[in-house]
Amino acid sequence: MYTCSNGDRVQEDQTRIVTREETFPVKGEPITILASVRVCDKCGEDVYDRELDSASLLKAYDVYRSIHGLIGPTDIKAMREKYALTQRGLSNLLGMGEITIHRYESGSIPDEVHNQLLIMVQSPGNMKRILKTRGDVLSASQRKKIGERVDQLIREECPDKIIELASASVSYKGPDIYTGYLPFQPEKLMDMIAFFASDKDGVYKTKMNKLLWYTDFLHYRYYGVSVSGTSYVHLPYGPVADQYALFLNHLLREERINVREVFFANGSGEILVTVQPDDQAFSASEMEVLKAVHEHFRAMTSKDISSLSHEEEGYLETKEGQAISYNYADKLKVDLTHLMPSLHTTL
Ligand SMILES: [Zn+2]
Fold first, then answer.
1. pLDDT in tens, 276-319
2. DSSP readout, 176-203?
3. Per-residue pLDDT tens for 26-75?
4. Which residues 6+ apart lie within 8 Å of 85 measured at CB?
5. Cα–Cα distance for residue pair 247/249, rounded to 1 Å
6. C-alpha 47 – ligand 1 centre gap (Å)
7. How many Å lie between the centroid of ligand 1 and the Cα of residue 164?
8. Dihedrals φ, ψ of 25, to 5°?
9. What is the CA radius of gyration of the chain?
């Protein structure tokens, strides 16, 4: 049942909805919008309809916000979700009343100072500064969680910086005995990772580093230089490419490779997969070594290849955290000459 402004009591089917221009005062400013209005069939006067009227008012607010460049509910909500902050968390962090953000997300017009602040903290770099100065209004665990989230967003915004950062962090940039007499080439290392991950079954995360190590070391043994100029560090699980995690993360973020989780009776493992390795990235001899390493170790479990690498002299003779000299390449127990036809034609 509805009541029109003439006082008629009418059923819904005695009314209709019309579209017409309506003007609402928003913060003292007249804002004109196209509004849907319910009118009485009997007398033609407006009928009060709570739902339609509040929708029109929100529409007027939207127009006002866009005229004045004010941040709106969707943007505030998206930002909050980006930082994994609650409405109350964001309010507290910005020194606003506890329900202020809730009001803004429900459509209220933000005041000017709040608006500036909200626009500013959309950028993770600014959010990081706010966290530094006002982070103590959050619980310690929340602060830590959001801090990590913000750092991740900053890294995502400038992926090139990651490679720069990772490349700057490697201990040996070569060319020397720790890089296989090549300057370190991060792109080449990442191409190698993509190559092994392109196996139709993918490759276990734990197996990847051994494949990289054998590839670089065997190429050095046969041709006097490594493939990627990567230096490998003695870690408890075996030899690992220096700053491996950073380069892997970069590949994952760029979606050049993906992680698939697999489950067994007694746990789970992560498999790296990719669909499009860049085969053009490698010379003929590099490709031959990559393929030989791939074939030789294909059927071997992560555990087997791990224990194998532990028996290699280059691993046995170095301590945890030490770089492994390419001098040990000649001592490798693994020999793949039978899988490399071109070595036989040149020898
Ligand atoms: Zn009427």
1. 788 789 999 999 999 999 999 999 988 899 999 999 999 999 99
2. STTTTSS---HHHHHHHHHHHHTSTT-E
3. 999 999 999 999 999 999 999 999 999 999 999 999 999 988 889 999 99
4. 93, 146
5. 5
6. 8
7. 72
8. -80, 120
9. 32
What value does the mean pLDDT take over residues 246-267?
84
User: What is the CA(32)–ligand 1 centre distance, in A?
Assistant: 25
Residue 10 tokens, joined: 């009418």
**Contact call for residues 119 and 112 (beta carbons, < 8 A):** no
Q: Measure 59 CA to ligand 1 centroid, in angstroms.
A: 26
**What does 246-259 look like in DSSP terms, one character per residue?**
HHHHHHHHTTSSEE
pTM to 2 decimal places: 0.57
- The SS3 of residue 53 is helix
Which H or E run includes 20?
strand 15-26
Instruction: State the DSSP string of 282-306.
Output: S-HHHHHHHHHHHHHHTTS-HHHHH
Distance CA 327, CA 240 (A): 17
Ligand 1 centroid, distance to 1 Cα (angstroms): 12
Collapsing DSSP to helix, strand or coil, 216 comes out as: helix
The rounded Å distance from CA 26 to ligand 1 centre is 28
Token representation of residue 244:
């491996």
Written as one string, the DSSP assignment of 97-129 is: -TTHHHHHHTTPPPPHHHHHHHHHTTSHHHHHH
Cα angle for residues 278, 280, 286 (degrees, 5° grid): 100
* CA-based nearest residue to 37, from 4, 63, 65, 8: 4
40: Cα within 13 Å, side-chain hemisphere: 17
41 CA from centroid of ligand 1 (Å): 7
Query: Which residue in 105, 111, 120 sits closest to 73, CA to CA?
Result: 105
Residue 245 neighbours by CB under 8 Å, 6+ apart: none
Question: 6 C-alpha vs ligand 1 centroid, how far in Å?
Answer: 5
